[in-house]
Amino acid sequence: MSLNQLMRYGAIASLLLASSACQSSPESPPPNDTSAVPAETAPAPDSDAAPNPDETPESVSEPPAAATPNPTPSPAPVETATAEMSCSATAFVADTDPAGLNVRSGPGSDFAIQDTLPTNDAVEVSIVGTTNGWLLVNEAWSTNQAELEQPGWVYAPLLGVTTTSLDINDPEAPASLYEAPDGLSAVKATVPKFSEVTLVGCSGNWLQIQTSDTTGWLAVGDQCSNPNSTCP
Q: CB under 8 Å to 160, separation ≥6 — which residues?
């Protein structure tokens, strides 16, 4: 056999061996090669996603209260209430409502109106009791006639007095406002003579009055209830 034939047979044998090896051991990707699998990435945050319930908001406010339906009004009481404190003082009507000053059967706006006092004329009233800022009056009279048929309640700030002074050494001396209805209590403030003040309450013959600056008690000697002129 010639040399060329031997070389050709050797090449054919090598090809047959290589083909057999490929069929018995198929190629598999290297175990550490991750290039064929795309890396997992986190999804982009969704702006409409529900908030984390464990997160505390910056501020929490209560929901608005449900509207309360208007209850059916009950009939106004008609009985006359009893005063918590008795008084013995006089004042004048300071209300300017042209419809008149309401006189009610009890100390409150929910009581029935049983009378009205004129506000277009000078009217003086007699005060006999007080409860929670309301005054019980048993008499009222204007220039020409009596204006009240039966005792009733009026709102205290709608009555007033004018301050005066009994200081004989100083006719222009101011009136003193005391902390309590007692001449031995401390003087809170003074009010110029002939100042019109509104009422808050009463105790005996003392009047609790309101000025633009303070509230205090005015002794009977510093009170002027004359609606037509100032007192000496």
A: 91, 92, 94, 196, 197, 198, 199
CATH topology for the 161-224 domain: SH3 type barrels. (2.30.30)
**Could you confirm whether domain 85-156 is CATH 3.10.20?**
no
> How far is it between the farthest Cα atoms of the chain?
168
What totals of helices (H) and strands (E) does the chain contain, helices first?
Answer: 1, 13
| Region at 133 (left for phi over 0; alpha for psi -120 to 50; beta for the rest) | left
d(C-alpha 162, C-alpha 141), whole Å: 18
15-51 pLDDT, tens digit each? 555 555 445 444 444 445 444 444 444 444 444 444 4
d(C-alpha 100, C-alpha 153), whole Å: 14
